[in-house]
Amino acid sequence: MIQVCYHCQRPTPEPVVVEEGHGASAGGHTVYACPEDAPRFPARPGPLAEIDALRRARVSR
Ligand SMILES: [Zn+2]
To answer: What's the CA-to-centroid distance between 34 and ligand 1, angstroms?
Structure first.
């Protein structure tokens, strides 16, 4: 799935979720970054940790 990186505005075949809206205020939008720019977003510990957390959240529900 190709998404546009929020930082460099280029399409990336390996998008990393750096911000995920949960429907309350953001309208459920998701912000993606390419793997190189994902560490620029300080709110997240890292792209791998984020992906792992999302996987666990899905499984537990
Ligand atoms: Zn980028």
So the answer is: 4
Residues 5, 56, 51: CA angle, nearest 5 degrees: 20
CB proximity list for 12: less than 8 A, separation 6 or greater:
2, 3, 4, 5, 32, 33, 34, 35
Instruction: Provide the whole-model pTM.
Output: 0.57
Residue 61 has pLDDT above 90, yes or no: no
Q: Are 44 and 30 in contact (CB under 8 A)?
A: no
Q: Cα of 59 to ligand 1 centre, how many Å?
A: 29
